[in-house]
Amino acid sequence: MNVFKFFALPFLVLFGHMAIADVSTPPAWPSVQLSVEALASRYPAKTVLIRHDPVYQTEKNYRTIPLQPIIKQLAKHYSGDLSQGIVVFTSKDGYQATMPYMDASATPGYLAFQDLGVKKGHWQPFQFGEHKTTPAPFYLVWPNSTDKEKWRYAWPFQLTKIALKPADQLFTNAVPQSANADVQAGFKLFSRYCIRCHAINGSGGSVGPDLNYPVNPAAIYSESVLKQRIMNARHFNPKTKMPVFENILSDSQVEKIQQYLKSFTH
Ligand code: HEC
Residue 251: exposed, middle, or buried by beta-carbon count in 10 A (0-12, 13-18, 19+)? Predict the structure, then answer.
């Protein structure tokens, strides 16, 4: 029911079915169905310049609605621990992109709903697989993301819904069996920094290998080698897509992630 409190009346129609779900299956994690009319009536639109748009590979200008107030509203209606919250962006074909709440709320993101380079109501098409498509109705853009931190930002398009969910409900196969405090802390860190690229038992991203199936690196590398592989993957593969974590994670944090990975080997 919480969603009704902050969105204007037009949402009632879209959220009709959710009211029933909220009553029968607590806890319902907050979500919002995106509509230009409803969002624009609540949040002031802003023009945003993207210097290197990853979809169009050029400079683009968009009319947008800011993401931050939307996810902060979701956060107000969220009963979990926000440091473990994952923002889930769903596209119209069902594709889901995820970002830890801590990252999504730290830098201004914008939901582009109009391409200012073309006639109003139109979008410039781009090649996507075998077809041409457009990012409508919403495309998530990050004007301030730097190349260095690129891996933190998701740029999903054709967005229709945003939700906030706890990592352990989203990545169920990656939840550790062990109640050990370090293992649990390791899972939190893993879902903040690693799960966008690595799955555990199929739950998570696919940019890098699954870290339990078929091989768990904690079972094949010594603790010190595994630590180096996590802290600086470039040392082993200069062209890797894996970021360097030396300035992001402390020694004790990496050790907790290692204990988390190791917990799947017994
Ligand atoms: C942006 C994507 C990305 C992120 C984020 C990421 N990795 Fe990776 N990781 C990769 C890729 C890709 C590889 C494959 C090997 C390579 O490219 O060097 C890899 C390889 C690894 C390996 C070696 C696996 C093996 O069997 O040799 C480990 C261990 C690992 N990552 C752990 C982590 C941990 C722990 C985190 C979070 C602190 C993390 N990674 C974050 C992309 C990522």
Answer: exposed
| pLDDT > 70: percent of the chain | 90
Ligand 1 pocket test, pick from 148, 197, 225 with the greatest ligand atom count within 8 Å of Cβ, gives: 197
163 lies in the same domain as 188: no
Is there an atom of ligand 1 within 6 Å of 221 CB?
A: no
* Same domain flag for 216 and 231: yes
Q: Is the CB of 195 inside a 6 Å radius of any atom of ligand 1?
A: no
Q: Which pLDDT score is estimated for 3? A: 40
236/177 same-domain check: yes
- pLDDT at position 27 is 67
pTM of the model: 0.88
| HEC secondary structure over 51-88 | CCCCCCCCCEEEEEEECHHHHHHHHHCCCCCHHHEEEE
